[in-house]
């Protein structure tokens, strides 16, 4: 029996949903910590994975006794996650925050379409309505907030669309790997694959590699802890929930980020942002309800 099969008792669905929501909420801290980091965009992603890997290695050894060989799907997941981080961090530098947020939130659309076309997983009509509501609510939040300097909108928008594509492929790779591997092993080897790619990108792009202040180091260390707990919880839940459902539920991230911005930086949440948050949360709830197994 594989480690993943051994760790798959029949937990109730609500437990996986709770883990997914908790993970997505923790990941909502990412934008705050990236803002506090003094390193370059790709370098920040590199440190995030580097600080996460020792903890993931300990978790894997505790669960399985050995780290083992890298699962192929974990290496693909690492490649796609590195591309996701790099494209997202640079996309937001060239287009508006609103455009970058809206376009990257298209991930559930990509995941659902892939599952529909290639995996023959036909979604229910109600689930498609839920996806539209969640993406639309997140988009409304982004446009209501606005912000950002349009240095090169065409390039920035293209990078942001690509981010949604890369994150969707990360989701699909991680979900496939979780069929036979534990979450900690998948996360560890994804980090091993992704960290060098982000370091090479940072060097080629002439970024500042190391934070210049203690606060910057604390921020990238926090990103590592956030990665283990947030992405780890998401990876664990993905072994127990449909991938398309998981991709919708993680759209609570912009809601959490807005709340944290309000608490930590006194960034006001206007009426349109509040409406967008309500629509997003409604779409998330509807998505998980629509994806329940039909009786019989």
Question: What's the structural blueprint in terms of helices and strands?
Answer:
Blueprint: H1 3-6, H2 13-27, H3 30-36, H4 41-64, H5 72-94, H6 97-104, H7 107-117, H8 125-145, H9 153-177, H10 183-204, H11 214-238, H12 243-249, H13 253-265, H14 271-290
Helix pairs in contact: 2-11, 3-11, 4-5, 4-10, 4-11, 5-6, 5-9, 5-10, 6-8, 6-9, 7-9, 7-12, 8-14, 10-11, 12-14
Short description:
The chain is mainly α and 296 residues long. It has 14 helices and no strands.
Share of helix among residues? over 70%
Q: How many domain modules? A: 1
Strand segment tally = 0
Broad shape = globular
Largest sheet: none
Query: Mean pLDDT, as a whole number?
Result: 83
Distance between the terminal alpha carbons, to the nearest Å?
29 Å
Ranges where pLDDT stays below 50 over 5 or more residues in a row are 1-9
Q: Work out the helix count.
A: 14
In percent terms, what proportion of residues is strand? under 5%
Radius of gyration from the CA trace?
A: 18 Å
Q: What is the H/E order?
A: HHHHHHHHHHHHHH
What does this structure look like?
- By secondary structure, this protein is mostly helical.
- The protein has one domain (11-290).
- The protein has 14 helices and no strands.
- It has helices at 3-6, 13-27, 30-36, 41-64, 72-94, 97-104, 107-117, 125-145, 153-177, 183-204, 214-238, 243-249, 253-265, 271-290.
- Helix 3 runs antiparallel to helix 11.
Features:
296 residues, mainly alpha, 14 helices, globular, disordered N terminus
């Amino acid at each position: 029996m594989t480690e993943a099969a051994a760790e798959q008792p029949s937990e109730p669905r609500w437990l996986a949903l709770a883990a997914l929501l908790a993970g997505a909420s923790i990941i909502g801290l990412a934008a705050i910590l990236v803002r506090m980091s003094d390193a370059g965009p790709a370098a920040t992603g590199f440190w995030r994975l580097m600080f996460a890997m020792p903890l993931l290695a300990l978790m894997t050894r505790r669960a399985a006794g050995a780290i083992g060989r890298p699962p192929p799907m974990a290496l693909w997941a690492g490649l796609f996650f590195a591309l996701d981080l790099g494209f997202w961090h640079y996309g937001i530098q060239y287009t508006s925050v609103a455009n970058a947020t809206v376009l990257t939130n298209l991930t559930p659309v990509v995941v659902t379409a892939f599952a529909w076309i290639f995996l023959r997983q036909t979604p229910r009509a109600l689930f498609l309505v839920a996806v539209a509501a969640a993406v639309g609510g997140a988009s409304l939040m982004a446009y209501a907030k606005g912000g950002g300097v349009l240095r090169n909108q065409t390039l920035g928008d293209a990078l942001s669309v690509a981010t949604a594509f890369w994150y969707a492929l990360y989701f699909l790779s991680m979900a496939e790997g979780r069929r036979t591997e534990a979450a900690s092993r998948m996360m560890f080897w994804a980090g091993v694959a992704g960290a060098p790619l982000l370091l090479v990108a940072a060097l080629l792009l002439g970024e500042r590699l190391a934070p210049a202040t203690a606060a910057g180091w604390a921020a990238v260390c926090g990103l590592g802890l956030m990665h283990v707990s947030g992405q780890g919880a998401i990876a664990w839940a993905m072994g127990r929930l449909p991938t398309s459902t998981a991709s919708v539920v993680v759209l609570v991230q912009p809601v959490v980020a807005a709340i944290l911005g309000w608490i930590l930086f006194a960034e006001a949440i206007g009426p349109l942002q509040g409406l967008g948050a309500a629509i997003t949360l409604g779409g998330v709830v509807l998505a998980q309800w629509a994806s329940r197994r039909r009786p019989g």
